Amino acid sequence: MDMNVPPKVASWMQVAPMAFVFVTMTLVPLGIILVVSFLDYDFAQVFPELYLGSWTDALFSQLTMDLYLTVFRFLAITWTITFLLGFWLAYFLVFHVRSNGIRIALLAAAAILFWTPGPIRMVSWVPLLGKEGLVNDTLVALGLIDAPLDWLLYSQFAVVLAYINLLTLAMLGPITHSMAKIPRSLIQAAQDQGASEWQIVRDVIFPLCKPGIAIGTIFICTAVLGDFFIVKIMSGGQTNTPANAIATELAAFQYPPAAAKSVMLLVVVVIMVSIMLRFVDIRKELRR
Amino acid sequence: MTDTDKKTTRAKAGISRRAVLKSGAAAAAASAFPAPMLWAQNIKDITIVHVGQSYSTIPNIAEQANKDLDFKVEMQTAPDLTTQVNRMLSQPKSLDVTDVGNTSLKYYVGRGFLQPMHVNEYKYWDKTVPLFTTGTYPSGEAYSMQGYAPIKAQYYTGPDAKEYSPTPTEWLVGMPLYYNADTLGIRPDLIGRPIESWAELLNPEFAGKVALQDGTGVGVPDAAMALEAMGDLTYVDKGNMTKAEIDATIDKLIEYKRAGHFRSFWTNFDQSVQLMASGEVVLQSMWSPAVTEVRTRGIECKYNGMKEGYRGWYIMMMPMAHLDGLKRECAIEYMNWYNSGWAGAFISRQGFYNSVPENVVPHMTENEYGYWYEGKPATEDILNPFGKVMEKAGVVRDGGSLWDRMGNIGIWNTLMDEDRYLVRRWQDFLAA
Q1: Mutate to test the interface with B, among A131, A157, A234 (most CBs of B within 10 A)
Q2: Nearest to A132 among B208, B264, B279 (CB)
Q3: What is the mean pLDDT of the segment spanning A174-197?
Q4: Given its phi and psi angles, is residue B147 left (phi above 0), alpha (psi -120 to 50 degrees) or beta?
Q5: Residue from B253, B424, B429 to probe the interface with A (highest A Cβ count within 10 Å)
Q6: Which residue range forms the structural domain that includes residue B46?
Q7: Inter-chain CB pairs, A–B, below 8 Å
Q8: Could you give the 3-state DSSP secondary structure of residue B330?
Q9: What is the DSSP string of B26-86?
Q10: β-strands B283-285, B184-186: how paired?
Q11: Which chain A residues contact residue B216 at CB under 8 A?
């Protein structure tokens, strides 16, 4: 049966289920969080009275500066290293590995990390980086240091190390995907013109990978900005980031400050992702 | 036919009894009525859900409870305190009985989540240690009021459960369950000399080898004990600081943190065990079962008291407000069972004390009771609750007997009035 439905109505009907889910599951809770951030509070209770203290503290205090500085520092270092690792590994995989089978096997190998559950991965850092751990023992045995290094674990170094460990694959994947789409004829044409390998990478491959890099960057940004678990475990509870601050306040049942900080963090992440999306046309990427 | 008649008769008897009880706990009080007999027929379909944390909702205890009692007992473990409080506040009807530490009580009082227990419903109130009944040590001397001392939140002013009464009444906030005196965990093999004061926590000799429990409920009181012991700061009530005291404490802690004094802050039991067992720290705030666990791994770990006193804490069990009728009777029966000895003995083997030591005696060997409660040397190996050897014969419990330890409390675990300000300043400390 052919229904003669005007195109506009048809579009609304198609979008309706998703819109319903989005409004009720995302927008409404966000709205509630926004309202709660303006309320007064006591031990695990919120009062319907206007209280702007949570927002003035979230926007103007030195603490907020420190929190965001810390997390952006983590983000910058993590992004740089995962980008370098991701890009060069992807380049090797796509352009230097001949057999498709080996390429897939190597990609799967990169994901071995995720075959173990999260908590075990967290716990296993201690015997590796601890004062009596593998790394320190080796360095002392080789005579390179006199006393064990204590900044390997329970420090900001350890946090960044865990991020790199976890997130390199998030960069490697999208970049590999982008690189694999580059037609070989382009590379051959460049070679025919006399370009060196480095010139090919710089002028042909890198610009064409921008979508993949942008997608990878979005993953890294959201993962780092939203994480509090890794920071807490790897820094021994001694580093504070915006997400950690929210977690601490929730654990103390102080909802309005947590709500204010959450909204702020959300705005920051949305801005960053919007900037990234200027570099990648998602529709084109997904069309493949 | 005959069966149905019998059932109906019994059911009728049950209903009338229920009606009598429903007419108010006042009736029970007036008649000093012991807990009514529960007919197996009525109650075998009832399930009592007990939500607690890993030290109280142990499967072995649930198994024994289901054996001894005619109704079903289901235990659910909340992975941490935050989850437990959230569950109680947002889904109070999904659980029947809970056990909480004193420090969480401020979240519940006067808000209708919990109901009181009448003194007469609890069979063992007279045998309970005076820490809870009168607020004193057995000698009659009042104990430290620093922090959230038990007597501050043991009695309600009336059955409406709105306000606490600092003097004994008939309405209990909860049934005292476990308590203990916590102190610093020590690695004597890595330190080499006795540790006797909280001040050692901040001793530069141990810089980079010290850990505290994360958070304002325990980490801050421990730090306050250390700071006061060092003479750096003085407090009126370490467990309930003023804004000025909080600022002073946090500023001092930031100094120590910047100097790299703290190795780590742990959030759960396993982390504390790992820190100690791996030798990452030599001194840290610790729970008794964690010390037991480290020892079970064959590593030396001491848990003796400091001269400034121990940090005391206690846990109470209470029924949720929505219970009534037969279910309430079953819940009360379950709570009474929990303190009747078997469960108490099981948990005593982790180092906690049960609030009714007399009931625990028949369930422990003379050697065990002597070691855990009386501070006597062990005549044979001491096993942990799961059967593994944790102490060889001849050893004396760190700190001695029950009253050597519980008789010297320097501060109780706490939730301060200025908690909001403290959490905010704790954020500054973490970001430093």
Answers
A1: A131
A2: B279
A3: 90
A4: left
A5: B424
A6: 2-127+169-178+315-359
A7: 83
A8: helix
A9: HHHHHHTPPPPPPPHHHHTT-EEEEEE-TTT--HHHHHHHHHHSSSEEEEEE-SSHHHHHH
A10: antiparallel
A11: 252
**Within a domain: B375:** no
B415 touches chain A (CB under 8 A): yes
Are B98 and B188 in a shared domain?
no
Q: What is the mean pLDDT of chain B?
A: 84
CB of B196 within 8 A of CB of B372?
no
Mean of the pLDDT values across residues B235-262? Answer: 91
Give how far the C-alpha of residue B172 lies from the chain's centroid of Cα atoms, to the nearest Å. 16
**In chain A, which residues touch B (CB < 8 A)?**
41, 43-45, 57, 63, 66-67, 70, 123, 126-127, 130-132, 150, 153-154, 232, 236-240, 244-245, 248-254, 257
The CATH number covering residue B228 comes to: 3.40.190.10
Please name the residue of chain A whose CA is at the shortest distance from the CA of residue B258: A238
% residues pLDDT > 70 (chain B): 90
Give the single-character DSSP code of A45: E
Q: Which residues of A touch B107 (CB under 8 A)?
A: 43-44, 253
Largest CA distance in chain A: 83
Question: What CATH number belongs to A62-287?
Answer: 1.10.3720.10
| Residue B417 in domain | yes
Q: Are residues B292 and B344 in the same domain?
A: no
Same domain, B115 and B224: no
ipTM of the shown complex: 0.83
Using 50, 70 and 90 to split pLDDT, how confident is the model at B269?
Answer: confident
This prediction has a pTM of 0.81
Domain count within chain B: 2
Reported as a single tens digit per residue, the pLDDT across A26-79 is 999 999 999 999 998 888 788 888 888 889 888 888 899 999 999 999 999 999
* Model pLDDT for residues A120-160, shown as the tens digit of each residue: 887 888 888 988 889 998 998 898 888 888 888 888 999 99
Contact present, A240 and A70 (Cβ < 8 Å): yes
Contact of B88 with chain A, judged by CB distance below 8 Å, is answered with no
